[in-house]
Amino acid sequence: MVQFSLWDILTFLLGAMRWTVALSLIAFVGGGLVGMALLLLRFAQLRGVGVVVSWYVQVFQGTPLLMQLFLVYFGLALLGMDTSPLVSAAICLTLYASAYLTEIWRGCVNSVPRGQWEASASLALDFPQQMRHVILPQALRVAIAPTVGFMVQIVKGTALASVIGFVELTKAGQMISNATYQPFLAYTFVGLLYFALCYPLSRWSQHLETRRLA
Length: 214
Fold this sequence. Notes:
The protein is mainly α. The chain has eight helices and no strands.
């Protein structure tokens, strides 16, 4: 059994936490860009496109994230692509986040009164102009709180990337547990660090929601 001081354990976990944060940011930003594109396609009234986007969302919402990680990781290998665990996890979490963000934002757009669509159409605005100048600015106020709240789910979802060998916070905790034979200590530190990441986001989301309703 290897002897580590508490400082050594904490330092190693903090180093791994940087990768948790990095993967979360990649997934959130990438998922946001893809999600916005899917949202616009869903409301563009192009024949058949809305159905495809709807099925895309249902697939990612209706299957476990762990299975999605395996399919992306091993599926890319079957296609002859030599990808790292980071790349595979980033692709999978980006697609996962895009599906959920599309659905969150769809609800926010639907919350805009129908009269706003009709009024903007009466001004001879086309669809891109309607979305840009009338609909999205109003939906944005509603979307901020649930979007920030979803960031918590992304941070926690990165823990599953450990199963494909990506050394983030959970994987680092497993490595320390195997080296020290002190799983309770290792995972207690891991849990506290996840809490330190997620709690401020949860509080921020609640604050934004309260301010919006005030």
